[in-house]
Write a structure and sequence with these properties.
alpha/beta; 2 domains; 7 helices
Length: about 350
Amino acid sequence: MRFKRPARSIVSFLFILGLWATPLTAQSAAPSASPITSPTPGEANDQNGQNGEEQPLETLKVNVNLVNIYFNVKDKHGALIPGLTQNDFQLFEDGKDQTIKYFTASSDQPLTLGIMLDTSPSQANVLGIEKMVGVQFLRDVMRTKDEAFLVSFDVDVSLLQDFTNRVSDIRNAMEKAHINGGGVMMPGTAGGPIPISHPKGTLLYDAIYLAGNEILSKEVGRKAMIILTDGEDFGSKMKLKDAVEAAQKADAIVYVLLIADRGGMYQGFGEGEMSRVAAETGGRVVNVGNNQDKLRQAFDEISKELRSEYAIGYKSTNQKHDGTFRKIEIKAKDYKIQVRKGYYAPTE
């Protein structure tokens, strides 16, 4: 027997999966776990260009046989390249040439965005920075039809704010985020204390898995996770490969901002694992340490990338619904393509 899942909520999944020992708790107010509706007249709004009004979110239709790919194009210096056309690209799946059915360089398609905060003890000195800069990022990037959610992870994985198209909702939820995780203080190599999570205290892989499998997999269109963490996982029931697969199956781009303050001795803990998650999904890793300016710059770069994506749609020459992983390669002369490594075929 399984519990009836509340609309657009991921809480009951844990009973199905058996993660009751590390529960995902919905800490937002009850209305935020309900389907999104237009606010009543006069509600406050933080989004740009809304003039105090918000429009209903549109439902998108997709063809399950059509593969949709979002990607960025950069030059050798990492600068984004706009203005390219369909004829500038070649598309391959498992090494076989594919026919592009549609192409667009428009940034107007709705964006579903997940902000994920590491609230284990290693983040004690940087969480305030994350909150301040993260809210400003959402103000800059979110538009009328976009929506976002907020997750924190430490000894638990908590849904602090379910889907919303109001930046103010995310801001209020961020204010409730606090350091948890049963951390212990260990002597540092430089003589100072280094906050280290309890071995059951940083459920990073579980958080990525749940965000992909139970939130973003139900959505269509452009999707991204932005994870603020030191990259270390302690105690997850899911493995790194499970987290990567869940993000891939959800068609979600993963950006990881490596951030922590370890007495000035931060050395990119977990950077290799996070680089794998990002590379496999078409995102990237930015190491910001404990520097507020670097974090702000990283958010600015991500905002520009999300608003400078190209989209390609094609019908695969392999029409088998066998659930296998299909490798994708997009080529453009003299340019670097930032794109996910592939996708999982549908099943019967």
